Structure formats: structure tokens, C-alpha cells
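Exam revision sheet. Question 4 asks you to relate a sequence to its structure. Input first:
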Amino acid sequence: MRIIGKGAALAAGVSMLALSATQLAAGTVTWWSPNFHAPRAAELVEQFHAEHPEITIEIEVTTSDGLPQRVLTAMQSGAAPDIIDVQHGWVAGYALNNLVIALDDIISDEDDFIPAALEYVRVDGQTYAMPFRVEGLAVIFNRGHFEEAGLDPDNPPETWDAFVEAAQALTGDGRYGFAITGGGEFGNTIFRSLPFVWMNGGNFISEDGTQAIVNQPEAVEAVKFYTDMLVEHGVSPASTLQNDGTANRRLFIAEAVSMYQAGQFDLASIAAENPDIELGVMKIPYPEGAETAAILGGWSFVIPTGARNPDDAKVFVEWMSRPENMGVYTDTFPARTSAMEMERFQDPALSVFGEMLPHTRPVPSHPAWVQIMQAYFDGVQRILIGEQDAQAAMDDAAEDIQALLDQH
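Answer key, C-alpha cells:
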């Protein structure tokens, strides 16, 4: 774990996480920023220090594996840092449990923000996070593999049936057609499988948040479609149960996988590590007669209720929300439309990802959403290891989810 201080990088152990929240001097802000944002975070902090020498930003670099529970534990224990990068979908639960403070007083030019991003982090008319990153996943594919398999890379499959046929055609000789995720931080699998449920007319919970409906036919059929990539069709690698999005990217770079779901944040790594791959990007396939869908992904800054230095934290979050800074920090698209004008977002390779944005939706808002996701993910894993079929696994997941709903 690394801590990047003003003008220097310091090494520290895990114990520093507790110390940082309680023993830092006035004028110091502790910021938990994920490792994939780390280089740009350090660059931006140096710029901020030049403008605000009275405030010191200490960066604690986090990793995605286990992050939702780690953040929740820190907030509930009273040992949270001053600022945390969190996924949009986590914010409502924090707000409903009084774990983060409202940031309406530092949000200006609301019309410049993508409306769905602000909607994601609003509860009862107040805004509890500052969105800075938005995205919708698509399917990245190897055009060369398509040609080898007799498929047309200029006309990739659009429907579920055609997609399965393409994945089967691409599978063989140690190569897999379509890698799904089944391991790592559970958000990986939620973001890749929940849209299939939506496309098929299902959901995890009812609109009023009182009923678990993940075991209804529309949802079960979609979960089966997703998990059958391993269980029935064998087009996803044997390591699927351990694989997260990063593992699938590595398999794709090694040309052991022909297609996988990802965001534009993977494009640079692929180009750098295997420039011989001719990349294609397609929208996520959908059931016949339906439309594609994706979760509106992305990240926001939150300031925990127990932050030691909320005032200076607000100064930094407001500075980071400026279009020119947001545009540098995000791995994908910025949450402000004016930042979209930056040159880095004009790359034609991003066009399909941009086309997916109108099809994105926020996840349901519920104070127990993180635990609901875990219950669903556990069910998916039971299917992948062959312990249960889709119906039985979703029946058990629905029972666990209903218990969570009944508590609120």
C-alpha cells in the first residue's frame, strides 16, 4: 500500500489507515484513491498543492478487491478518511445510513453534469457525492479471431442467439470465445450480468424496494444465459470462477480469449501490451426483439460523516470537479459534458462506448444494495461451480435478499 504525500511518496503498512484518520495534523486531508487512478491522482495533487499550499493531501491507494466492504467498515467504525472514491451505486446506501455528508454547497453548474450521474447520488433532494467518471461497458473483440473463425468483424452479432453461435465458433485449440467474470470484487460480475437481466425484462428487486424478484422467470433466464457461457457452452475459460475484469483483459491480451466485456479503460493496456491485436468493439448483445442495456458505471467522491477535516476536503473535491481536472482524472468519460470537449475523448475507438451511454441505467437505490449484490454474486458462484442450477441459486439469493429488504 502506498501513501503519496505533498511532494513525496512514502511507504506505509495497513495500520497507517487507522492512524491517518485520527492523527493527521490540521490542514491535512486523507484521500482513498484506487490504484488505477494513482498516477493521475499524484499529478493532480501536486497541482492542487501549488494552488493551495495551506492544505496537504495524503493519498492512500486502495485496490478494488474487497473495497465495498472495506469502505463500509471504515465508515461505520468512525475511522474513515476525509475523501473516498466510490462507485455511484454505493452512494445511496451510505446516504440512507447517514454515513456521508451532502455536497450541494460545492456543486456548481449542475446543467453541465450528465443528469443520470447526479440522479445516481441524490437522496431525498440532496446530493451526497460528486460524480467525476461515467461509463457503460461494451464487448471488446479480436477482429483477427473473427476472420479466422469465418465471422464478419464488420457485422458482429447483435442478438443473444447469434452471440452464442459466434462464441462457439471462436472457441477451440485452447482459445475461448467469450470470457465472463465470476471472481474478484463482486461489482465485476454485477456490472456484466445485471444488464442481461434488464434486457430480458427482469430485475433484482421490485421498483418499490419491497420484494426480491431475482428468482422470477425473466431474471433466471438471463442469469442462465450469462452462466451458461461456462456451465453449458464452455466458451468461457475454466478459470472463470477466479477471473475478474483484469484477469479477462490479460487473457484477451494473451489471445486466449476472443471477446469479453469491458470499458474503454482497457483499450490503452491492450494496445500497449499486444499492439498486434486488431481491436473491435460491439454493443452488448440483447434478446431478439429487445434492446441492449448496461449499468451506468463510474465513480464519485464522497466525504464520510466521520471525516476529520471535511472543510478542506470540500475544497479539494470542488477543485477536482472542475472540467479540466475531472477530464484528466477519469479513466473513461467525465461526468461533466464540457469536459467531453477535451482532445482525449475524441478518439474514434471510443465511439461504441459513447453509443452505449444512452442505454445505461443506474442500479436500484436501496440502503442494503451492497449486501444485495453480495447475495446475488454468491448465487452466481454456486451456479458456476455446479452446486445449483440457475433457478435454485436465484431462489436462495431471493430469500437472502428478501431478508435484507425486510430489515429496511
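Marking note for examiners. DSSP finds 16 helices and 16 strands in the chain.
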